[in-house]
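Please fill in the sequence for the structure shown.

STRUCTURE ENCODING:
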């Protein structure tokens, strides 16, 4: 099949049927280059004009995790978008036969997540990241094909990335209707990884499925799961379990000014590359102090028992115990004012959403984000042990090492 458009383009053959159109291979004759065409059939002039406006709104996006729009146009019976092509093919055609390891799958989903966050800065959101809307280049990179139309709830944002990770790990084109039916297949696909790795990833994907993770918080977890080739001799997933100690409760009211400072900094597990944009910098830096979060998931955590006390009596500081302690200077992390603006930017992290989490999980999330924390246990209508308030608010950008505070319910007063 060959079809000429405006005496400039030639459509050669169909590649893939998509939700609202068809993907074709073709050529740009004047520039002598291969291109891809997204063609939508329509004879309604109003519909075509509205679709062209939609294409032109997103055309300035030049992120390399998307197929760039080079040109758009209308013919009597259809609309077309000319997309920059890369050696490769639609990912859905390679889904069942790919050889990505679990680590590579996490890295690819993380990269797409960064692309979605970059697109948000350009006002572009809601595009599908289902495997059927991705292009796999010969160098192994995944790129979003159609980013001007909205995907379904299960195809976009954090849930879309979670479902894509399931598709890649299980080599499945379809998504089950419930997470319970997904879990056995995920565990089978992750059989080569440790139980700790499996538990963290599956627990995170379950929260994503239930809309309990934002895109930013999901990316924090993915970043912590991604191995760094520079530290393979000491991979994060295989590090020992670190113990977290809490000070005992006191029976008398404490003067906050006289509280003993016990904050201690967990030594960074790895060196991560900087992402270049503020949100992504926060993601990368948060993980320097956050590798301990997932290795704790398999370890029971018990709050120390004590006598009943007023809210003022139940505030605690919960440091991480490092392998090497320094006694001649404060153990808490230092916030250094850098003369280099880039260095200063690298010290900014994102406050995770702790509301609704259990006490021990909230502490782990705080540490995973590179933060110190304290909490208070008070009477509240929420379920006992559940976080119901935090300061600063979730998604606030703060310097790494900042201390946040959250409040835990001890149930309704009898």
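FILLED IN BY: designer on duty
SEQUENCE:
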């Amino acid at each position: 099949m060959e079809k000429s458009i405006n005496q400039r383009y030639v459509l050669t053959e169909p590649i893939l049927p998509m939700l609202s159109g068809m993907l074709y291979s073709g050529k740009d004759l004047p520039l002598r280059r291969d291109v891809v065409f997204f063609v939508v059939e329509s004879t309604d002039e109003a519909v075509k004009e509205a679709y062209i406006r939609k294409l032109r709104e997103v055309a300035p996006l030049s992120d390399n995790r998307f197929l760039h729009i080079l040109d758009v146009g209308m013919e009597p019976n259809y609309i077309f978008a000319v997309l920059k092509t890369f050696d490769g093919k639609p990912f859905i055609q390679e889904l069942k036969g790919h050889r990505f390891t679990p680590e590579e799958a996490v890295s690819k989903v993380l990269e797409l997540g960064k692309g979605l966050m970059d697109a948000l800065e350009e006002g572009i959101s809601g595009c599908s990241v289902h495997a059927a809307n991705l292009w796999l280049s010969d160098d192994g990179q995944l790129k979003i094909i159609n980013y001007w139309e909205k995907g379904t709830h299960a195809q976009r944002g954090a849930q879309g990335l979670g479902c894509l990770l399931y598709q890649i790990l299980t080599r499945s084109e379809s998504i089950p209707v419930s997470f319970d039916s997904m879990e056995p297949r995920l565990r089978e696909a992750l059989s080569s990884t440790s139980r700790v790795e499996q538990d963290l990833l599956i627990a995170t994907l379950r929260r994503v499925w239930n809309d309990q993770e934002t895109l930013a918080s999901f990316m924090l977890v993915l970043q912590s799961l991604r191995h760094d080739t520079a530290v393979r001799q000491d991979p994060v997933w295989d590090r020992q379990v670190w113990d977290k100690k809490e000070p005992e409760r006191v029976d008398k009211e404490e003067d906050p000014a006289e509280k003993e400072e016990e904050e201690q900094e967990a030594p960074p597990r790895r060196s991560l590359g900087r992402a270049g944009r503020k949100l992504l910098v926060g993601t990368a830096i948060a993980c320097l102090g956050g590798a301990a979060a997932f290795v704790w998931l398999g370890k029971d955590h018990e709050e120390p028992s004590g006598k009943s006390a007023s809210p003022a009596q139940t505030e605690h500081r919960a440091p991480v115990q490092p392998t090497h302690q320094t006694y001649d200077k404060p153990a808490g992390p230092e916030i250094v004012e850098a003369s280099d603006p880039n260095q200063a930017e690298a010290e900014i992290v994102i406050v995770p959403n702790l509301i609704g989490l259990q006490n021990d999980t909230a502490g782990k999330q705080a540490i995973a984000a590179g933060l110190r924390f304290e909490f208070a246990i008070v009477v509240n209508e929420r379920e006992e042990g559940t976080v119901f308030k935090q300061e600063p608010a979730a998604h606030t950008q703060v310097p790494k090492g900042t201390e946040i505070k959250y409040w835990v319910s001890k149930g309704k007063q009898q």
